[in-house]
Amino acid sequence: MKKLIFIVCLLVATVIYSQKNVQPIKVYELEGITVSSYDFEGLETFFKQKDDTIYIINFWATWCAPCIKELPYFEGIGKKYKEKNVKIILVSLDFPKKVETSLLPFIKRKKLVSDVIHLNDPDANSWIEKVNKGWSGAIPATIIYKNDDAAFYEQSFTYEELEKELLKMLNK
Amino acid sequence: MKALKIVLSVLVFGLVSAFTFNRVVTSGYEVGDKATDFKLKNIDDKMVSLSDYKDVKGYIVIFTCNHCPFAIAYEDRIIALDKKYKKLGYPVIAINPNNPEVQEKDSFELMKVRAKEKGFTFPYLFDEGQKIYPQYGATKTPHVYVLKKTKEGNIVKYIGAIDDNHTDETAVKVKYVENAVDALLKNKEVSVKMTKAIGCSIKA
């Protein structure tokens, strides 16, 4: 009986813990477009979702030319593989003071359909290696993961390259 | 037969050098390595080498550029580093590693413009042909290498970020580069030898 109570408690605790709501530190809004801003602790939960979905997480910024160039490929892959349980998350590293003046208008202008979230955590040395040990900190950078299986890329993608890497994960 | 041997040797040599080259490009320096000197064109059109500096104790080599918002956010702090440490024997040497054919805002002419606008007190060199940054292993701007001048050459003592807050100078808690140079000036071991920061990928 004691054992059972213990197990039930453990289960309840696990459920509560896994549903721990991560609150954004700020939510920006402009003409119907909203972007939530997180510190790294909040962002990290997006890297740990174990729901059999393949997540493609891309670090970018509106001023980063190679990032903007590859953005349509992420959008395209997101649309094409929507039914295959693939989800794109674009993590903007725009400076906080530029979110309202650059990021939100950019999302509107380019009609982005992928999820965009904003990371506001200036002490990058404390979290870069938590994203991936091999990351130097240069952007663009991309993670493709499903449950506990992850691949990291510090590079720019073409559409074909991105699709090839996604298919590796999809066909596992 | 002899011809075949020659062809084979050339092939093997080619392969080996290709791999060696790759290794250099991807790895770069670690703390403790000896850093290469260079001869690069400064914004005053004169060539600059580390060895030109006779009476220094070391160098703060910073790969930076005109266009990158992270680099721009650090410009004033780079000037401050030079002002503080040049007289103590650790001048700042800034190098733009980007290829202007890929990022036109990083052209040599625009380097001159930016340096004048900001009043750079240090040399701002152009890595023409993008040959020096891969040897150092720089991947982004800004990317700092603190070197100590010794009889054996210029030894890498710190690699990484300038401090722990790129967006807000007033919120900085740890000044990595200053701490490293301060330790070297006291002949002490640098405590934090390597840090990482977000930056713009180098445009080669």
From TrEMBL, chain A:
Domain Thioredoxin: 19-172
Pfam family, one: AhpC-TSA
Positions in coiled-coil regions: none
Record InterPro entries: AhpC/TSA (IPR000866), Thioredoxin-like_sf (IPR036249), Thioredoxin_domain (IPR013766), Thioredoxin_ResA/DsbE_sf (IPR050553)
CDD domains for the chain: TlpA_like_family
PANTHER family on file: PROTEIN DIPZ (PTHR42852:SF13), THIOL:DISULFIDE INTERCHANGE PROTEIN DSBE (PTHR42852)
Record protein name field: TlpA family protein disulfide reductase
Automatic annotation (TrEMBL), chain B:
Annotated Thioredoxin domain residues: 29-186
Record organism: Flavobacterium jejuense
Listed name of the protein: Thioredoxin family protein
Alphabetical list of InterPro entries matching this protein: AhpC/TSA, PRX-like1, Thioredoxin-like_sf, Thioredoxin_domain
Cited Pfam families: AhpC-TSA
Top-rank taxon, per record: Bacteria
